[in-house]
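Build the 3D complex.
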Amino acid sequence: MSTGLQQWAPSPSPGPPMKSGRGRRSSPMTWRWRDRLALVFAWGAGLGLCLIAGAIVVYMGYRGVEYLRPSLLLQRPALSTTQSETGGFLDPLIGTALLTVIGVVLAVPLAVGGAIWIAEYGRPTWLARVVESSIEMVAGTPDIVIALFGLSIFQLGLFAPFSFKASGGGVFGKSFIAAGAMMSLIALPPLFTATRDGLQAVPSHMREAAFALGKTRIATIRRVLLPSVRSNIATGVTLGISRIIGDTAIIVLLLGETLRLDPQGSVPGINLLRGTGSTLTSYVYGNSPAGEGAAPQKAYAAAFVLLVFVLVLNLIVDRIGRSSADATGMTVAGAVV
Amino acid sequence: MLERLSRPWPDHRAERTLGAVSLLVCALVVAMVVFVGIHAWPIFEHNGLSWLGSGGDLGRQLADMQNTTQHPPPSAYHLRAWPLVYGTLLTTAVAVALALAIAIFSSIFIVELAPARLRRVAIPVIRLLASVPSVIYGLIGILVLVPFVGNHVISSAEKESVQNVVLLTGAGLSVTVVILTVMITPIMVALICEALVSVPNSWREGAVALGVNPLRGMLAVTLRAARPAIVAAAVLATARALGEAIMISMVSGSRSFAPKPIDGLVFFFEPLRTLASGIVDYREGIAAPALGSALYAWALLLLFSAFVLSIAGYLIKLPLRKFQVRG
Amino acid sequence: MSRIRRLSLAVAVAGVLGVAAPAAASAITTITISGATASYPLVSLLAQKYIKVHPKKVKFKITQGGAQIGVNDVAAGRVSIGDVSRDPLAADPAGLVFYPIAKYGICVITNKSNPVPNLTQSQVIALFTGKTRAWSAIPGATASGTIDLISRTSVAGVLTNFQTLLLEGKKVSTIAAEEASEGLMRQKVESDPNSIGFVSNYQSDKGTVNPVGLNGVACNKSTVQGGSYSGTARFYEVTKGKATGASSAFIGWIEKSAAARKIISTQWLPIS
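Done.
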């Protein structure tokens, strides 16, 4: 989220601040009716938004507490038409974690490498603008289009080792690797923006001091700049993670939608990546009336767990932002969603 | 050779490697357009651009596409997807318009009117709202809002008035637009707040010194100076609303039907379908060549719209640059 | 040998062993199946039993999406077997082989609060083609108001058979809501008091909806198995070309073994 919401306080201006002392403010009773209407709208909109957010959190919390039992987190899901036998959501939890790891591992080199090139090298300039525009375009692409793109790539014969080949010769195209690769595209823009802004915010005297000591540019980057933008990278990764765990469209198209983890092939470890599975988001979708609808209680429980994850990630971003601002005196440039 | 790699790299090699990594992203974008375009080509080949128009029952056309062989005859590719395009335009336009109004007033509230304690609560809360996954919005919509609208808001007389055309179940335009607005407002609030704050306070104080009340000063001076950010926020929100697939597929009623404003109040309850939610709904039929091409064609349209939006946003901000504090 | 060379050789050998050993040990084939939601419960049960009878030989990956999806997937080579709940059509791709495995009944259902006991075929046709729109026109119905027609999406084999067998080839009206699976159809009829729909007898026998008799014959497991109910159709397993290898063994087991016959007889009717 942008810095505006993170650490803003009214900036002090010369002279007595506007808001001190009731007497300085003109009373709304003296305003024109248009301004009074605007005042009412502003209060209404602001309070309304807060109330809606509060209502969502409270309602999900209420339903979650009602339906979530610790055993659900540890039980494997089972296919059954009777509610009480549908098991828990251990496999979706593992699926979410696995997918997040794959997405982040693939996104970090791409995003950090790109950000370093833009911030530190960036020649020729037209190429730098092209790269920045490309990342903006990836950021603006709907996730369903990215999912279809992933499907079109991973169903090519070339990529058959990444999922599996059915006996008729068709490539299945849906696996953890396929979904993870597309998830890295989802996590790429926030990570790139955070790293690039952090690098651009590093004062130039740090670079100049390193050059004066005889270090090459790449050595400066490795030893001086990257460590100083660690918190930016951490913020970017956390933002990327929160986008990955919240995404459903890519899962529903690219992960095969099997309730349990279904490894493919016989090499241990790799077979998990080539296999299909589910995540919390596809579990919620599948159990709602839009999917098979058999278990809205399980859907609520899983949705509550998902919301808790998102809340925790938000807090982490907040914490990183505050601690880095204290430490270095520089603000952390949070990336816009 | 491994030793050569572990020694410190010369600058030119590092620059080339990092440049190649950056170019990989560009290559991915190009690949996206190319691959989606290749799969979407058959629809364009058989329909030209008229597949965006209307004609016939879209539901039946898609059904016929699904029930075809691996080598379908040209007639199988017949598509008139106007209901989807109309659904997308309708939901996006209405949601963005509502969200813009709500976001501007909420931002003014947060920046100017809220007491400090309320502001400290409001900011994290709105930020949380922006990061809630869309499937949770869809879940609350389909389990709470849709039954409420279906059982308590739609009267049976209204149901009977359209009973020969479509079934009203509560899942439809109103619930879709409401939830979509709630989804995109926080994104805009974040951007607009940041812009309002970065306008120097002295500008507004000058206006107040001339006798304008503080709120009008905020509206007349600060908000106008933040116009590029408002445009950026609107563009971002539109891109988000266009691409929303999962939530809409859960609460829109999933009928390839174009809601008719002529129907009066019932218009707000009629089911619909958008391009993105159509891709989600028909995703299992992708193995049928004609339907697969149709899905990729819709995706190509969405991709194209996203690109056009970024360019449009950039172009709109250009003349406003002379007024801005920061863009 | 330099240290790096030795290290890389060791890694290479370990890698080859690591891949080859498990690959040689387990020659498990995966049978992928996709298709009808109506036959999904049956095929899942059969697959589970088959694994118990022939452990460690095969693995199953079963998905559902509708009979037409199964036909398309098997024709495209994406799955080994397709579950199809309708008879072969002229429009089906060439080269597909249909193996019948069981029979099922298609029952018209209404909400439990609206216990319509029986409908004649002409009444069913008038209802589902949209000619009759109010419950007041149906004798025996306690619901009032508009009739909410619930149908299936176009990929459903049950829909094709329903139109052929019960609607005499006419198509369900476009007013009808379209549900993506049997489970969703059943849930919709369970929750909407004004609704009417159709499912296979496996779903209506659960007792949560009211099965409506057809031309005086009730629709349940015993009338379907006894042969008196007229709306019965067949489940097929479909392969591209004649079934080979693991698929052929599985289909042969379904057709011939007593264990499979027992499973089919719980809710459906065996073929012979």
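The mean pLDDT of chain A is 83.
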